From TrEMBL:
It holds the Pfam family RibD_C. InterPro entries: DHFR-like_dom_sf, RibDG_C, Riboflavin_Biosynth_HTPR. Residues 8-189 form the Bacterial bifunctional deaminase-reductase C-terminal domain. This is Dihydrofolate reductase family protein. It comes from Streptomyces labedae.
Amino acid sequence: MSARAGRVVCDLTVSLDGYAAGPGQSEERPFGDDGGDGWGATLHGWMFEDAEENRAEIDLLGSARAFVMGRNMFGPVRGPWDRPWNGWWGDEPPFHAPVFVLTHHPREPQPMAGGTTFHFVTDGIGAALERARAAAGDGDVAVAGGATTVNQYLAAGLVDELRLHVVPLTLGAGPRLFDGVPRLRLAQVASRPARRVTHLTYEVLA
């Protein structure tokens, strides 16, 4: 895997048919009908049940210096911020860096334990990326998801490296990678099979 700094990268776990979550997402089942408990245990078991086998990929997930995510990934609250919500990850989220959340509704930045601060960006994907780049310096910016947000960045030609973690199950419906994205030219950088997942890394050429 490339060690160049200053890129826009994306890590996304998907089913074999390209879905990052199942249909029917809700606060009780954030990943919807995902083939398991609705909390991503089936899709993301490679990270939690087989962490040592996938240590290199997990470490790379956390190596970005700033993150961008969609509001759907941040939480289930829609419309104005009518109740406290600081993400799914508890008091100390795993990012340990600035996170820029796309939303239509303004909100003051939310600092958390461990170095994560959520910033809420109301003026689009370009503005969020510009702010993330400034925060990251010469480090990578990671578009963390979900699939709809990743698709927006891919369609705009803003992603340098795409890292897919393909899990051997099909979901049949839900938010799907590449929906609405024009044709892409990719160069395969790396691939590695593991027990629960196949890791694929692509450079996005155009």
